[in-house]
Specification:
The chain has about 280 residues and is an alpha/beta fold. Helix content is about 35%, strand content about 25%. Strands 6-5-9-10-11-12 form a 6-stranded mixed beta sheet, with helices on both faces. Strands 1-2 form a two-stranded antiparallel ribbon. The longest helix is centred in the N-terminal third of the chain and has 17 residues. It is globular and about 65 Å long.
Length: about 280
């Protein structure tokens, strides 16, 4: 095999790590791929770790033990994350974002892969060590940010639907209060999950909490433990929706009908991102 230059090897290794976030890749995989000694690969990993950390691109960790190797986790510094979310909040506070019925126009943000990837990276960070097996969202607007969160965690994304689809086979269906006095239905294919797994619930918007509560109930039907809830935008509440951890990127006050909606970065993110 033709000898590979170190610079070329470093580029390829970074690409391999970034394509498999939050996954431990054994050193032997790199040794076999590049026909290099483990000592050389270890030096390469140390250099990659320093560069990734110095530019705030994420975290590279060496995992010891029989199943050890190297793992890359995409991250933003908390200060950068706060700056990014603050910029979105400022944009959402412009008058032309207001929609009838007390809603905000979010579709352009949710259709931008660069924006949603950054949001997904921030949402995923509190859950890296929670043993999440999949991300669950409700169709349809929450799908982009849920997909990017799942990508950062390197787990599947599942979609709860308002009705079962023939092409998904048999499903579990539940009815749940929507928080506004009505009843909605929610469906998930039986073969989509396995009993005993852990889920992270992700959605784009949470006001009354009916959909989030419905997804929690749906997971109980499958004997799935919910590790936490993450939202792009959630209404400020005196009491949390549940006793589960909640990580909204932004919160809002006002109903958008009688009082204007005011969006701000979520307090947990502001606390972590405060340079003081």
């Amino acid at each position: 095999m033709e000898k590979i230059k170190r610079g070329e090897r470093l580029i390829a290794m970074v690409r391999m790590l970034s394509f498999h976030p939050n996954k431990v890749i054994p050193f032997q995989v790199f040794c076999d791929q590049f026909n290099a000694a483990k000592s050389s690969i270890s030096e390469d990993i140390a250099m990659i770790e320093r560069v990734i950390a110095s530019f705030g691109l994420g975290e590279v960790t060496t995992v010891t033990g029989a199943a050890g190797g190297v793992r890359f986790r995409p991250m933003m510094s908390w200060a950068d994350a706060l700056g990014f979310i603050s910029g979105i909040a400022e944009a959402l506070n412009t008058p032309d974002r207001a929609l009838p019925g007390g809603y905000l126009y979010l579709s352009d943000l949710l259709s931008d892969p660069v924006m949603t990837r950054k949001m997904g990276i921030i949402m995923a960070r509190p859950s890296f060590d929670l043993g999440v097996d999949f991300v669950l969202t409700m169709e349809t607007k929450g799908i982009p940010v849920a997909m990017m969160t799942a990508e950062a965690l390197n787990v599947p994304m599942l979609i709860a639907r308002r009705s079962n689809k023939v092409y998904e086979g048999s499903s579990v269906n539940i009815s749940y209060p929507d928080g506004k006095g009505g009843i909605e239905t929610m469906s998930l294919a039986r073969r989509a999950v396995m009993q005993g797994q852990r889920a992270l619930i992700v959605d784009d918007f949470m006001r009354h909490g009916g959909t989030a509560a419905g997804m929690i109930t749906l997971m109980q039907e499958f004997n799935i433990e919910v590790a936490g809830l993450a939202f792009m935008l959630a209404q400020e509440r005196e009491q949390p929706l549940t006793d589960l951890p909640e990580w909204p990127l932004m919160t809002f006050s006002g109903d958008g009908i009688e009082t204007p909606m005011v969006v701000r970065p979520a307090q947990w993110l502001a606390d972590l991102g405060d340079p003081r």
